[in-house]
Amino acid sequence: MKIAVSSSGQELNARVDPRFGRSPYFVIVEPETMQFEAVCNPNLSAMHGAGIQTAQMIANKGVSAVLTGNCGPNAFQTLSAAGIQVIVGITGTVKDAVERYKKGELKPSSQASVGGHFGMGGTDPTPGITPDPGTFPGRGGGRGMGGGTMGGGFPRTPYKGASSSGPLPVSKEEELSFLKTQAQARSKELTNINERIKELEKKKQ
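Structure (tokenized):
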């Protein structure tokens, strides 16, 4: 039996990422031995279908359950069709989440917790939570076109009177860790793009 946990990093002590389809990483854990495998999410910056594609990727890993902060309808349906339990509202570290699952403290969700495109372009934030200005970028994905943090989508500040039963807002430490991870990913992407540009320019000569 294996469990997939959406994560901001590649270790058991990494924080659980509040999104499923656009989580930077997934830590796949064998609960009994706590042996794990960290998987990068290639659909992090996908314009469309990130939830479904990520769900298919996770299903191919042979997991029995997914622990995450939020899960949209398309991803939820895909995971459910594959016989995978989906548990949302998870916060804290990956290790803590798995330990809670082992103790039977976490119950499978019966439906998606957010609408489509959660964490992508300023639509469908967590119920009861409002994003900081610039946190949810437009479809451009960057400051030049989207007006926000690249690949963001981190809800933080709760409305007054927000329900405490929903997913909790992330802390500044969690956001900092997430943004560092995003920065590293974007830097690598930019390097690859520049290398490809150089290759194409050489072929033109």
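The two ends are 54 Å apart (CA to CA). The mean pLDDT is 73.
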